């Protein structure tokens, strides 16, 4: 989809905001805290019905408002038609409800909505992923999969819900459950977790297998060919004796059953893809512990390039690249390298920066500079920085 227009109502710090996208680049610029990332978050919401900053959608509704709306219009290149996608958020006392609308029609099922706008996100936090927590690395992989496989978003949501329910039962938090009922409930949760969890696990393994070659090549181009690089999925389930013959769902179901007594004592679920990780090695050494800052960034950049190449090859067109404030983390030389490599692979790209002169893209033609100022999108933003 080629993005043409975005309209925000009561979203984050925007009471109302409208902007037209550049055909290739849209540079959102302004000081810290004015709402630039909020605009990327709005686009990400339309792509995935999720936020990349908060699990709860409540904070996306402007303080004091009960409802928020994000609407994107653009051109669906595959259908050759104009298209409009909207997400409405309604905050109630207990939760925030979301409603997806495509071309005026409500879309009840998430998987029917995901993928109409396909977006790949790159934030400064991604640059620290190798040194950060396994949770951050799993989110990093899952975000890559959200753009690749629309079923993955639904599986992650189902898995998280089942996991929370299983953990509540393990901790005895559901009052009034007898001992016999507890086992029946756990059996049901285990079956659901094994089904969704196996799909998550298999997709993550396949993603890494598919990206491995392009990742190594992109890293070699950025950093040189003198260091060997590997990329592996890490799961405790892989090495279970005799497990190789069973399919992933059966292996996960058996592992959950086997861990149940232990999990009851711990009050939490200790096996499954919510405990998995991925491992990047430079000449056999763990990159998280041994790579220099520059190497770690080059590795993540290489992963994103591989992700963009894969997405373009699969869908026949490049997804929209959402690039949040990356230049602030890099020196000018690295910044130039990053833009050169990423932008070569990207189709349409929406980027935020406090320093538009850093971006170095000429205004006009396919590039539009838009100034953001405390919840206001300045009109007439197609001039240069
Ligand atoms: N629900 C909300 N209602 C009103 N304002 C909000 C809401 N959520 C966030 N904000 C405001 O949005 C602003 C943050 O916006 P954002 O993170 O997009 O800034 P930014 O321009 O990307 O800044 P930086 O350059 O530092 O990354 C803050 O001023 C915050 O108070």
Please give a quick description of this structure.
By secondary structure, this protein is α/β, with parallel strands linked by helices. The protein is 42% helix and 23% strand. Adenosine-5'-triphosphate is lined by residues 12-13, 32-38, 59, 61-63, 325, 352, 354.
Features:
385 residues; alpha/beta; Rossmann fold; 6-stranded antiparallel β-sheet; 6-stranded mixed β-sheet; 42% helix; binds adenosine-5'-triphosphate; single-stranded DNA binding; ATP-binding; DNA-binding_RecF_CS; DNA replication
Taken as a percent bin, the fraction of beta residues is 15-25%
Largest sheet features: 6 strands, antiparallel
Relative helix content: 40-55%
Cofactors, ions, other ligands: adenosine-5'-triphosphate
Question: Would you identify the regions where 5 or more consecutive residues have pLDDT less than 50?
Answer: none
**Strand order within the widest sheet?**
2-1-4-5-6-7
Structural class: alpha/beta
Subcellular location: Cytoplasm
InterPro entries: AAA+_ATPase (IPR003593), DNA-binding_RecF (IPR001238), DNA-binding_RecF_CS (IPR018078), P-loop_NTPase (IPR027417), RecF/RecN/SMC_N (IPR003395), RecF_2 (IPR042174)
Function: The RecF protein is involved in DNA metabolism; it is required for DNA replication and normal SOS inducibility. RecF binds preferentially to single-stranded, linear DNA. It also seems to bind ATP.
Protein name: DNA replication and repair protein RecF
What does this protein look like?
The protein has 10 helices and 15 strands. It starts with a strand and ends in an 8-residue tail after the last strand. A hairpin with a 2-residue loop joins strand 10 (277-282) and strand 11 (285-286). Helix 5 crosses helix 6 and helix 5 (179-223) crosses helix 8. It has a domain at 1-118 and 319-385: P-loop containing nucleotide triphosphate hydrolases (Rossmann fold). The longest helix is centred in the middle third of the chain and has 45 residues, at 179-223. By secondary structure, the chain is of the alpha/beta class. Bound molecules: adenosine-5'-triphosphate. Adenosine-5'-triphosphate binds at residues 12-13, 32-38, 59, 61-63, 325, 352, 354. It is found in: Cytoplasm. The RecF protein is involved in DNA metabolism; it is required for DNA replication and normal SOS inducibility. RecF binds preferentially to single-stranded, linear DNA. It also seems to bind ATP. One of its GO terms (molecular function) is ATP binding.
